[in-house]
Sequence to fold (317 residues):
Amino acid sequence: MSDTHLTAPTRFVEVAGDQFAYRRWGNTATDQPPLFMLQHFRGGMDHWDPLMTDGLAAGREVILYNGRGVASSSGQPRTRIEHMADDAAAVLRALGLQKVDVLGFSLGGFQAQDLTRRHPDLVRKLMLLGTGPRGGNPDSDPGVLERAPRPVPTLDDFLFLFFGRSEAARQAGRDFWKRRHERVDQDPPSSPQVIQAQIEANMYYLAKLPQRAIHKDAQCARYVKNRTLEFQIQTSDGAGRHFHIGNGKVRSAAGLTTSPQFTLIFKDAAKGFAVLSAKESKDAFLNALRSEELVICGDFVEVLWFQGLTDFLQPQK
Fold:
C-alpha cells in the first residue's frame, strides 16, 4: 500500500456539472469491496482519524468523499439528506463502482441509510456509527447545539462534541487532533452555506414522525435481503425506542461509549446488554465487517474514534 491517509491525492469526479472531491487508497489484493465513508455534520475528508482510515485501508480500499459544496467539492450544498444520498450514489457510479460497503457517521449515517434505501444495488453492507433513524428526534446536549455550528471549531469544541469527559478521553481527543492536522494539503473548511444547509437537512430528517409513518418507513427500508438493522436511540421524551428495519433475525445492536477505550455493547434478546472487553470488542467489530449481517454502532452523539486501541485496526486475517 503506497498511499496513506496523509499522502493519498485529492482527486475529483464530475457529476451533473459539479466536481466532487475524493481520496482513494488501500489494499486492492482482497475480495472485499471498497469501504465508502460518509462524514459528520460539516465535516470533510480531513476530519477522519488517520489511525482509523489507515487501519481499515490495510485490509481493503477506503474511499473518503466530500458531498456537494462541502469543503473542496463544488456546487450548492444540499438541504435534504435524500439528495445527499443520491449525490453519493452518482459519485459511486461515476467511479465505476458496482458494489461497496458503506460507513456513515452522524449526519453521514443519515446519508448512508438513505443511500442504502434508495440505491440498494450499490450497497453490500451498511455500518452506522453515532447516528439514528429518520424521525428519531434525539435529545441533544445544549452544548452540542452551541458548539457544532461555530464557524471555526476549536480543539475544545471537538473534545466536547466527540470525546468523553474523563481526562483519559480528553487526552485521546488531543491525540486525534494532532493526527488530524498532520496532512500537509488539508481540505478548506466548509463554508457557512454548508453549515446552514446541513442544519436544515438535520432538522428536516430528525423531525419527530407519527408512529404510523415510522412503521411505514421501516417497512420500506429493506436494505439487503435477509439482513436486519436495529436502532436503539434516546428520544427527547426520555423513552428508549427501537426501530427494527428490514427482515431476517436481529443478531445484535451495538453502541460506542464515551470511555477512553473502544467498547461495544451488544444487545442479546436472552441476556440483555453486555459490555465486551477491548479484545472482544475488536474481534466483534472485525467479525461484523466480515459478516453477512448489517451492524449499527453508536448512540446519537457518541465517540467514533477508537481511543486507546492502537492494535484495533490491524489488517483483517
In short: Residues 11-297 form a domain with the Rossmann fold fold (CATH 3.40.50.1820). DSSP finds nine helices and eleven strands in the chain. Residues 211-278, 288-317 have pLDDT under 50 and may be disordered.
